[in-house]
Write a structure and sequence with these properties.
13 strands; binds iron/sulfur cluster; globular; seven-stranded mixed β-sheet
Length: 419
């Protein structure tokens, strides 16, 4: 680790603090009693990249701060509790106040079949994340596993999460999370399964959720070889498809993601992103549609991450940019976390590229994401301003929010049992 950002910059730009915390982690001072005070218990998370404490920074930036990994133990950041509030300090100096993400009451509930609801789905930020099936095949490949080297999914399932989730169980959790946590979005994530069965597996959940709740739905799977399956998802009302190619540099992609390289190859990911982005103007007008191409910053040179951002936005898709986290138990557990300073231009470019291409960022209501820096959160990392695009986005946000909230409320009303 080299340069420390000035405290005044962190205070003026919470996005910079969000990035710095991803890279440096945080220690928890004895003055905090997080579980007893409503904060979420640290759960390993579904995307294979996260773990940590969920907090909300000023400006409404939800974040998942590494606290369990070894690098966090020497972090200059500490979380303190003073006068009934939580504060982040750096080397003893106060940076900013934070809130702990509230622990949902339903985290202590069970499904009708007796399964803890958190073994079916958990909140990441403000949305419900579900990993509905058995572990990704790369983790169990014989003679040797070929999982992505940063990934922890094979360490999670069956520990914090269950490997079999029926449609009924998922529906119970979706309805409960909607009623108690007011979720607006459900995200499904799968790994690779032999026979490309991942979309077949998700479709029954999607149909039921749409029918009963009208909530927004996202799907993150490998790229299906039959691209017409994405037309079908669009017709079914899916709102987001996401393809994690992780690394834009082809040599590094091969090294970091051996299973993805052998099974699909990077081009399949890029072709699927391009194809799905072209579906924006087709399908039901009442369903927003975005395509994401996901990368991990910190595992390849920043210039390569910037090239990835430029490519993804050039085809009309929105980049999702995670920050590499060396999770305990993974192949990369002993690697150092990235230096935050060289990543600032990456996240600045993320915002600029989305604005230059007029992409619909931050339009869905009540979606805060803790595991990544959202493009709209990165506005403070660049001096460039886009007043006309900002104006258009504000109008879109208002319109889409109004329409969707009405739709969700109507579905809630219809779902309520008659008194
Ligand atoms: S495809 Fe890679 S990142 Fe995704 S679950 Fe499998 S091993 Fe993990």
């Amino acid at each position: 680790m080299t340069v420390m950002f000035p405290l005044s910059d962190l205070q003026a730009t919470p996005a910079l603090l969000k990035l710095d915390l991803y890279c440096r982690g945080m220690r928890i001072d004895d003055s905090c009693l997080i579980a007893e005070d409503g904060g979420r218990r640290v759960l390993r998370t579904r995307a294979g990249l996260g773990s940590g404490l969920e907090v909300i920074l000023p400006g409404g930036l939800w974040t998942n701060v590494p606290v369990t990994e070894s690098f966090a133990k020497s972090s200059p950041y500490t979380l303190h509790r003073e006068q009934g509030r939580y504060w982040i300090k750096r080397d003893g100096e106060t940076v900013l106040p934070v809130e702990l993400s509230p622990r949902p009451g339903w985290y202590d509930k069970k499904t009708t079949g007796g399964k803890p609801m958190t073994r079916v789905g958990t909140l990441q930020g403000t949305y419900l994340a579900i990993y509905p099936a058995k572990v990704c095949d790369y983790w169990v490949k014989k003679p040797a596993k070929v999982n992505c080297k940063f990934c922890s999914v094979g360490l999670n399932l069956g520990v914090d999460d269950d490997t079999v989730k029926s449609v009924e169980e998922v529906m119970e959790v979706v309805h409960t999370a909607r009623a108690e946590s007011h979720i607006t979005y459900v995200d499904f994530n799968t790994g690779h399964y032999e026979g490309d069965t991942y979309l077949d597996l998700l479709e029954p959940y999607i149909t039921r959720i749409k029918k009963e709740t009208g909530l927004l739905i996202g799907v993150q799977t490998p790229p299906h070889p039959d691209l017409s399956r994405y037309d079908r998802l669009r017709e079914m009302g899916v709102n987001r498809v996401s393809f994690c190619f992780e690394i834009y540099d082809r040599e590094l992609f091969r090294e970091v993601c051996p299973g993805k390289h052998t099974q699909y190859g990077q081009d399949r990911y890029l072709d699927a992103i391009r194809y799905c982005a072209s579906l924006a103007d087709r399908g039901p007008k009442t369903e927003p549609w975005v395509t994401n191409g996901e990368i991990i910053a910190g595992l390849e040179p920043p210039e390569s991450s910037i090239r990835a951002i430029n490519w993804v936005t050039s085809v009309g898709a929105i980049p999702t940019v995670c920050v590499f986290r060396p999770l305990a138990g993974t192949d990369y557990a002993n690697m150092p976390p990235p230096d935050p300073e060289p990543l600032v231009p990456v996240f600045a470019r993320l915002y600029e590229a989305c604005m230059e291409r007029g992409l619909p960022i931050g339009c869905a209501p009540n979606i805060h994401v803790s595991l990544v820096m959202l493009p709209e959160e990165c506005a403070g990392l660049t001096a460039k301003r886009y007043p006309w695009q900002q104006f258009k986005l504000s109008a879109m946000r208002r319109g889409i929010g109004w329409y969707l909230n009405r739709r969700f409320d109507k579905a809630d009303h219809a779902a309520k049992p008659l008194a």
